[in-house]
Amino acid sequence: MKPTKEETLKHNIPDKPNKPKPQFYAVCFPKMQEIAKELGYNLVIHGSLNRDFDLIAIPWSNNPYPHLELITSLDAFLNGTIRYPEPEMFERGYMYSKLPGNRSSYVINLYRGGYYYGRGNDGERLYEPDPEFYVDISVTPYYKEVALSLKTDEK
Known about the structure:
Blueprint lengths: L4 H6 L9 H19 L2 E5 L7 E7 L7 H13 L7 H7 L3 E3 L3 E7 L4 E6 L5 E5 L4 E6 L4 H6 L6
Parallel strand pairs: 2-7
Antiparallel strand pairs: 1-2, 3-4, 4-7, 5-6
Helix pairs in contact: 2-3
């Protein structure tokens, strides 16, 4: 049961919810970039961060690791575990889809509770689940033949 406006004001809890998502995403992003770089990808932000965390992973080496390694490594960092380690569950678990431009899309759900609304009459902490707390990663295609045909300074 959500407290009334009067109850909320009585406990000095602001009417407007704060926006913890952008701060959480900003704190996580540098480590996520390190993980992606180690696996041969450049990770960039695409979006406002207000709802979900939209990212683009771009192959940044001539031998990037498979998507499975990238997504499960980021999941392990964000959630403390790899929830879908089995290859047969990978696409379904991370809600794989194909996007225009032959991009691959994956979703990593973040389970961090929800919105806190104070305490109910019986002292119970009140939360409302947040279904829009997730990382949406679009991976651009890697074309090995093209990459190898280009002269680069990569060692």
